Amino acid sequence: MNWLSGFLKSLSYAQEGIVYTLATQRNMQIHFAIAFLVMIFCLVLNVSRLEIILVFFAIVLVIGAELVNTAIESVVDQVSGEYHPLAKIAKDTAAAAVLLTALHAIIIGLLVFHDKIWPLRIRSMSAFGIEWYLVALGPVVLLYFILQTIIRRKRGSAPNRAIEKRGVAPDARK
Ligand SMILES: Nc1ncnc2c1ncn2[C@@H]1O[C@H](COP(=O)(O)OP(=O)(O)OP(=O)(O)O)[C@@H](O)[C@H]1O
User: Fold this and answer.
1) Is residue 13 domain-resident?
2) Do you know which Gene3D superfamilies this protein is assigned to (predicted)?
3) Structural domain contains residue 157
4) 164-169 CB contacts, 8 Å cutoff, 24+ apart
């Protein structure tokens, strides 16, 4: 039971990280919007299992890189409140990693979808294999985190990076 509650706690911390990034980082909001759209394309268009794997790999890479970038930005802001060349290197390099994954995702997206959007190639009813149901989980997961972020914002408990940067904890915000 201890093991289970520890596991659930670490899941909830990970969820906090995603909600925080989604609430505070404009780029993450853009990644989520594009990922949602692309997942709908995967559901509707005639996309093969291998293409789905490539597309989902690209999405996870971008979102993962944005999470790590946010983690690095936060640590840098905490450690070095003032301008420092090393802080600049850390932030610029982390941002470059996100850019690289985003370029990779654009290339994958173009290669996979360019001949399916025009002329429109809709998935045939016989092509609803197991991967279709797995892909359908994607938008559900994204919507879950979007809803969590909206609910926290409404409650006034969503983190605010601008305020944090000025050194006020999110909970102190009223
Ligand atoms: N402490 C610092 N020392 C040196 N350069 C910094 C420092 N903080 C930020 N920078 C420079 O400013 C750029 C933008 O930093 P910032 O923290 O605003 O990133 P951001 O991507 O806009 O993040 P956020 O979304 O949190 O505003 C960095 O990539 C870096 O070049």
Assistant:
1) no
2) 1.10.287.3610
3) yes
4) 164/74, 164/77, 165/77
**Which residue segment(s) compose the domain that 49 sits in?**
27-172
State which of 91, 98, 160, 165 you would mutate to test the pocket of ligand 1, scoring each by most atoms of that ligand within 8 A of its C-beta: 91
DSSP tag of 126 = G
3-state class of 45 per DSSP?
strand
**138 within a domain of the structure (yes/no):** yes
**pTM (2 decimals)?**
0.87
User: Model ipTM?
Assistant: 0.92
Beta strands in the chain (DSSP E): none
The CATH number of whichever domain residue 132 belongs to comes to 1.10.287.3610
Q: What's the confidence (pLDDT) of residue 113?
A: 96
User: What was the pLDDT predicted at 80?
Assistant: 82
Do the domain assignments include residue 8? no
pLDDT < 50 positions in the chain: 166, 168-174
pLDDT of residue 127: 64
Distance between CA 19 and CA 145 in Å, rounded? Answer: 6
Q: Does 161 contact ligand 1 (Cβ within 6 A)? A: yes
pLDDT confidence of residue 167: 53
Ligand 1: which residue has its CA nearest to atom 15? 91
Please list, in sequence order, all residues whose beta carbon lies within 8 angstroms of the beta carbon of residue 40, skipping any fewer than 6 positions away: 139
Asked whether 86 lines ligand 1 (CB < 6 A), one says: no
